[in-house]
Amino acid sequence: MSPAQVELEEHPEAAVVRVRASLDAAVTGQLRTVLARAAEAHPHLVVDLAGVPMLDTAALGALVRAHRAARRHDGTVCLAGASRVVITVLHTMHVDGLFPLFDDCAEALDWLRTSQVATA
Predict the structure, then answer these.
(1) What is the rounded average pLDDT for all residues in the chain?
(2) What is each CA distance from 20 to 12, 84, 116, in whole angstroms?
(3) Segments making up each domain of the chain, as ranges
């Protein structure tokens, strides 16, 4: 059995969704399920994309839906560890401004912990 490609990790300030695969049609369903579960428990999400070499439009749609759901609960979806390819896709699709971008999860969690976003 292969290891999970999308995992949920709970933190006091946010849920961290770790992805360890290309975000294509084979993984996007699992991503949607985990994002929905994470959003039920936390207004703030950090999506760890360090293990994601590429993402397709379906995965991008799942991230945008998670962003909209988080905003309805005064939350934020942060992206951490995104590769240059992933950042280029976000920019090309004009959604890079929706997500605070961080080099890694620790930086994103620290920002949520210390920013007004977490206390708003």
Answers:
(1) 91
(2) 23, 16, 30
(3) 6-110
pTM (predicted TM-score): 0.91
Structure tokens at 7: 């995992």
For residue 84, give the amino acid letter.
Answer: R
| Gap between the Cα atoms of 74 and 117, Å rounded | 8
H-helix or E-strand spanning residue 106: helix 105-114
On whether the 6-110 domain is CATH 3.30.750.24, my answer is yes
Q: Which residues contact 42 (CB under 8 A, 6 or more apart)?
A: 10, 14, 15, 75
Res. 11 pLDDT band, cuts 50 70 90: very high
Query: Under a CB-based contact definition with an 8 Å cutoff, are residues 51 and 16 in contact?
Result: no
**CA–CA distance, 83 with 103 (Å, rounded to integer):** 9
Rg for the chain (alpha carbons), in Å?
Answer: 13
Closest CA to 40 of 75, 6, 81, 64: 75
